[in-house]
Amino acid sequence: MKKTLLMLLLAASQVSAMAADSSTVTFSNGEEGWYGMQPLDGIGGSGIDTSMGNGAPAMRTVMENFGVSWTNNTNSSFVRDYTQMGAVTFGIDVSTQSIRFFNQEVSRNLVLELRDYDNATNGLPYTSVWFNLGTLSASQQGWQHLSVTIDDTTATALPAGWGGYGAEDANGNPLLPSDRTFASVLAGVDEVVYTTYVPGMVYGYTDYDIAIDNISVSAVPEPSESAMLLLGLAGIAAFARRRAHK
Question: Taking the domain 22-221, which CATH number applies?
Fold first, then answer.
């Protein structure tokens, strides 16, 4: 009995710890720190649309601009020291209604960018690490889920597929400053951004109609933690069977 109760307590504490490090914004409770683009000419922009969410209201951006972004710099579930999490998954649902350049449908990449404003150098506004999540196109009907998992938030080198910003090479391509590492940026993330502005790329004026929903950050359990959780669940099942046969 005591062993079973211990397994139950361990499983419960593990679930609680993971829940505290995970959050999903569905826009059912408002923006929760997320905001989109506001147009310079007063036409279009971003706001919550209750008619097209993926299971809930969505944030929809309809405007003409070089690119569009959705940003959070106030919600502590997203603005934080990620090196305390070990491993983490970022996710977002996207519905691309239209991306038109010179009245022709085109595609754009969606980038996740994690920005640190406190340690900027080289005359640039921030240092960041970024990942190309995938391609947005009106030809992709309905909602698509895009995500990336960082397996080790304490890694010093950029993981495969990740880029850096805060300095430039001789050709003007963005890279991390020599005194910064992947982990040092993740340790002080002041802003989380989903954007079609890929660092180092330039675009012309484009008409966008894109909605986003279910923006999430989720702790990823380590193998030992998963084993502990399974052990606890097995204990719950055994305890339930024993009581059922009494």
Answer: 2.60.120.260
